[in-house]
Design brief:
Blueprint lengths: L1 H25 L9 H17 L11 E7 L6 H15 L8 E5 L11 H9 L5 E8 L5 H12 L6 E4 L5 H7 L2 E5 L22 H15 L8 H9 L5 E5 L6 E8 L1
Parallel strand pairs: 1-2, 1-3, 3-4, 4-5, 5-7
Antiparallel strand pairs: 6-7
Helix pairs in contact: 4-5, 5-6
Length: 262
């Protein structure tokens, strides 16, 4: 009987020691180590997933350039930056190997002894560029002089020249540009009645008009002829919009290449 009690006591003691051992191990501050490799693997995996869902580039690198001048009404950052963002996404900018070569007037032009028109001519005559078109937005005074001299250099300019919402001399632009498009209430503005460039506001529909113009220039892939077919080009370019010929308020005459957007 005593041997049985002693054996039971011994068993209980051993069981108690083992229980305390396991309890101590469970309460220990030591934890299962997490390797740096496992953490890095998770981070890299997350990064790869983000790359897979990134937006693909919509434009391709090209040697062609379309010169875009941001003039009056369009030369403040709050106006031209959103438009440039759209152009960058759709066509790419020259700085990235894309189509659009943008210039802001007057900040991107030198202010030394050379005048604005000569600086513009120098850009258009730069042999490092293969231009497919010129788009003048809010053309400032004397822009038509540079365009005229560029025509003289080429004899027959091999790409379209289009002026949107210009504030340069109207007759000068009609004579040098393939197409001139005005907004209704700005039609007839001359170089000497230009609005203050710091307070003028761009038109809400301007980004759409600009991209429609660029798309049509790319579709043409060549110059325009100044004849009665110009009207058909304009109607196709700005399909669905109300457009009519501009009438000179002094002479009552209409130029075949000057239009007004209602």
């Amino acid at each position: 009987m005593k041997k049985q009690i002693k054996s039971l006591y011994t068993f209980l003691c051993i069981s108690g020691i083992l229980s305390l051992t396991f309890f101590a191990a469970g309460c220990s501050k030591e934890e299962i180590p997490v390797t740096e490799n496992s953490i890095n693997t998770i981070e890299l995996s997350d990064g790869n997933e983000k790359e897979l869902i990134s937006t693909p580039q919509r434009w391709h690198i090209t040697n062609k350039r379309l010169f875009v001048l941001f003039g009056y009404d369009f030369n403040t950052p709050q106006v031209y930056e959103p438009i440039l963002s759209i152009l960058k996404e759709r066509y790419g900018l020259d700085s990235d190997g894309g189509l659009i070569l943008p210039y802001i007037y007057p900040s991107d032009f030198r202010h030394g002894t050379r005048g604005y028109s000569s600086d513009l001519l120098a850009i258009l005559q730069d042999s490092t560029y293969d231009f497919c078109g010129v788009l003048l937005i809010g053309a400032p005074e004397n822009t038509h002089y540079a365009i005229a001299r560029n025509q003289d250099e080429w004899q027959d300019t091999p790409y379209p020249v289009i002026a949107l919402f210009p504030q340069d001399d109207i007759l000068g632009l009609e004579a040098t540009c393939d197409i001139v498009l005005d907004k209704g209430f700005t039609a007839g503005l001359k170089g000497d009645t230009v609005e203050d460039e710091t307070t003028a506001q761009a038109f809400p529909e301007a980004p759409e008009i600009i991209t429609e113009t660029i798309d049509y220039i790319l579709e043409l892939n060549g110059p325009l002829e100044k004849n009665t077919s110009i009207q058909n080009h304009v109607l196709q370019m700005y399909h669905g919009k109300k457009i009519h010929h501009y009438t000179d308020p002094e002479t009552g005459l209409q130029a075949i290449n000057h239009f007004v957007l209602n």
